[in-house]
Each structure stands twice: as C-alpha cells, then as structure tokens.
C-alpha cells in the first residue's frame, strides 16, 4: 500500500468514525486511574475496567516464570482486565493465570474473564468447573460463550441448555456476568443479541479494517451501545497484519480502536519490556522486541510512519494513549470464508471448532 493509499484508507475510517459521534462518547466515559491506565464502564454492570486488557492466549506461550512476572507487572501498572478461555493451550493459559493471581491479593485487583467452548448444559457446566479450578478462584467475574462463529451457535446455546447452565452458575455465585464472543460474521452476533437474554458483554474484532468490510463496529456496536451491552474489542492490529502488510503503525491502530465506545481492548502481551515505561504518564513507549517469531513490536514504528500518522487531523489519534506498544501474534491457522479477501480476514478468527459436539454433528458423527 502506497503512502497516499494508506492516508486515504485512514481518512475514510476516521470519517466513518466521526459520522457516528462515537469518539466523543468513548472519551466522555473514560476516567483517569491512580494506577496509570484509564478505565471505562463495563456496560450496565456497574464495574469499571482498564481500557486495555491482557490477552490470555498470548500469555500462554510464555515460560511460566516470565508469564507470572508479566502478569504481576501488568496489575501493578493498572492493567486489571484479564482475558482467558477454557481452551487456550488446553487449559495451560488458565493455569498460568491462576498461579499469577493466587498471591499478594492480586485476584481481588483483577476483573477476571474467561470463555467456555461448549454449547450444551453438561459441557458448559464442565467448562465452568474446569476454569474455576485452573484459575484458583471461587468466582469468575465474566463468563463468555466463545466463538459464536456459526449460524447454528445461537440456537444450540439455547436449545441444548448452555445458557441455562450459565444462569445456574451465576445464581450459585460461580460467575457474575455473562456475555459472548465472535470472530467471523456480524449476523451471528446480531442473532445472539436478538435472543431472550439480557447480555452483559459482547467481544468482537475492532480495527481499522473492520470499518471497511462487513463491519462489526458499524452494525453490531451501535446495537450494543443502545442496549448497554459492553463491547470488548480484540484484533486491534488484525493479528499483526496492519503494521506488517499495510504499514499502519500499531500505535495508530490501537488509538483508533479506543476512540470507539468499547469498554476495553484486549492485547497480546508476551514480554516484560512491554511495561518498561509506566502506562498513563503520557510518554511514548520505547521500541521493544517480544523475542517471538511473528511478533510485530514498536520497532516497526519508524519516524516516517509516525509522521504519516500525524497527518490525521484527529486529536484522539494524535495523543499518546497509555497502553503497551508491543504485542504478540496469534499463530493459529486462519482461512478464507465466504470468499472474503484475505486482507480483511485478518480481522477474523481461526478455523478451530471450539466445541467438540459442533465438530461431530457437522461431520455426521
């Protein structure tokens, strides 16, 4: 992509954002935090969370001692929203996070979210109990139904009893709030919103690419805002493709996502160098290297690219925001679906079948 094309691309995305008035809405809800990273309300829950969160998938790729140190430092720096999932690295990510939160009263400092992968009653119950044990906690703050990526998922969740298991877990005090996530198709998330349930959260890809194609932020985000369903952003860098293939600085990508009315943006953290500069002090984060294959870090943000980002006439994008400028890249396989251009699929999810029964039924087993 040429410099002119890149500028036009960014301007089109920002024009779309300005038309919605979302930028002012997002910043109006944001408050400074004594720990450094600002917070935003988590929808109608009454909770406030850090505007950036620590991603559970990526922390599971780091050696245990280093991963625990990263999570401790993240908490100290005010990053208090922790993301995870029952299936990340076959439960290893949850086990690591449980060890990190088990000492020093850290569990009480974190808003802890994990995801369940089954759709049926017994499967969801097992997922919840497994996650509670691995995370070494008696209550998970937020449980989300993971990867609503298929048109049958919303129906199965209600027809097969998954939602009933979650409601019972909430009544029993095992979880506090209930939401869902989706990577691929906005229609599936809209179908979830249409179900007879008062959702607390919805997690979806939020990035500059999404503004141009099958847009979650144009079609699902407004519905969530209207219903006070908190939106959790992910794929802010499109798995690293925005900096690598389009030359858009990671810093600009994250600023764009955070000008939308999302509660938090989940980021992959794989190195303690991410926290070399205290978040929230207004300083630029130094160049870093996650030391992992495929990771794109702030070292790709050259002065030339910073000047390109500076051409945007939008204060929210030009101001430094308090979050690490580095992150890892999800190495899971991805594929084209519905004939979508690959560059746009960067915003989507993997081709994993997160529910075993989904795989069996689709394969006739």
Describe the structure.
The model is unreliable at 276-365 (pLDDT under 50). This protein has one domain (3-362): TIM Barrel (Alpha-Beta Barrel), CATH 3.20.20.100. The protein is an alpha/beta fold. It starts with a helix and ends with a helix. The longest helix is centred in the first third of the chain and has 18 residues, at 3-20. Strands 3-4-5-6-7-8-9-10 form an 8-stranded parallel barrel, surrounded by 4 helices. The chain has helices at 3-20, 22-28, 56-59, 64-76, 92-101, 121-135, 153-159, 162-171, 186-194, 216-219, 221-227, 241-246, 250-258, 303-310, 315-318, 342-345, 356-362; strands at residues 39-41, 48-50, 52-54, 81-82, 111-116, 140-145, 175-181, 201-205, 230-234, 264-267.
Write the topology of this structure.
Elements: H1 3-20, H2 22-28, E1 39-41, E2 48-50, E3 52-54, H3 56-59, H4 64-76, E4 81-82, H5 92-101, E5 111-116, H6 121-135, E6 140-145, H7 153-159, H8 162-171, E7 175-181, H9 186-194, E8 201-205, H10 216-219, H11 221-227, E9 230-234, H12 241-246, H13 250-258, E10 264-267, H14 303-310, H15 315-318, H16 342-345, H17 356-362
Parallel strand pairs: 3-4, 3-10, 4-5, 5-6, 6-7, 7-8, 8-9, 9-10
Antiparallel strand pairs: 1-2
